[in-house]
Amino acid sequence: MTYHEYDEPHADLRELISRIDKSGELVRVSGVDIDLELGTLVELIAHHGGEGGPAVLFEDVVGAPSGHRLMSGATNSANRLALTLGLPRPGHPMDVVRSYRDRMKTHEPIPPEYVDDGPILENVLRDDEVDVTALGAPTLHELDGGPYIGTDDAVVMADPDDGWVNVGTYRVQVHGPDRVGLWTSPGKQGRQIRDKYFAQGKPCPVLISCGHDPLLFLASGNEIRYGLSEYDYAGGHRGRPFEVVRSELHGLPMPARAELVLEGELYPGDLAPEGPFGEFTGYYAGGRSDQPVVRVRRIYHRTDPIMTVASPIRPPSNFSYSKCVMKAGMIWDEVERAGLAGVTGVWCHEAGAARMFNVIAIRQAYAGHARQAGLLAASCQSGSYLGRFVVVVDDDIDPANTFDVLWAMSTRCDPAEDIEIVRGAWSGPLDPRLPAGVNRNSRAVVSAVRPFERIAEFPPVAEASPELRARVADKFAAVLDGLAGVKEGRR
Fold it and tell me: Which of 87, 105, 146, 163 could form a disulfide with 99 if both were Cys (CB 3.0 to 4.6 A apart)?
């Protein structure tokens, strides 16, 4: 396995940052205030245009301890995502999706390797020394209920029945020196593990990593099948195990080269008001509610740690692009594993918060093929949570091109015949369309394909053949290059 132009995977976040810097996609910013300025600047960069924007390393941050830094957007471009996953350098976003899909055909999980020491143990604060408020957690949005130390985080829990280790991404609000709120959506695996402990009347041990290899964030922020540890899944992509050390209190596996980790317990009935928080759908949909509190008893951190930050906002955000690529690859893999052939591309659009508007392209082989593809994409594990629209298009449509997709919907879909409604599907409180307390929704499966029975007689597309286009483009390259310059000048 080769890692982009490197022969070995990056060792940790710091080495990946160095590689991103060498690729020319890192911007260093000094003097930003942790209170609102950082979150607003992340938003401005994400909305500035272009594929995901650059990665940003915030240094000399106002309101953070001296030497503490924050990292934004490490994987939020096709190139940086490929660099993180160890995939070939892409020429098009769909190249990363295809590379991911191809890898998943042979992907084998690799369990973590336990070691006795690691950089995360350079500094350990215990009991009365613990003060989460001194770590410089950002307040990202103006209406947030407070600072959030956990956004691009990895929350580690172990199932009380069989010891299976889950790593999930859930928002973590700072309540006080030794108390943070942990919000988990109904149905999520961390929520199920927590509820098992509470049902037994026991506290739930938890680790919260707030700075780590982005490969862990890519794994922890997606729906991986129950019982498969995200450590194992990410290790399989890395091609070698993640090194972990056992935490002092509960022996939970902690990334040995993480930057900053909190350890403590959730207790049944110990609640505090949490939120609101601007979320990835682009709304403060989760509201404010009483949520379980982690009593923090250990803080582990490297010297001059780097906190990883994901700022959920009205899309695009500083992580939505990479989420689109990962989610598309996972849906493609699951649909094929379910037995469906003929998929030529999948894309989850940023405007749909990488979950709510997904497109699957197929080469039709039989009547009902398109409907089957759409229903599978809407109901597979990676595509189910918080879904809204699934659009099926023919293989001549680029699923990542919004204009192409809308054209196909407008010209190949008859609403009365080609739209199926699935009711009672898995959703959650972050869906802004749902009333409080309702965690299921409906979704539309749109067949925007030529009717299979009329494929041969369907009107041909009015455009030059690829051969003619290539010949004319080559002959008049200078003219076309000039037009591109005119277009740039008008922006």
Answer: 87
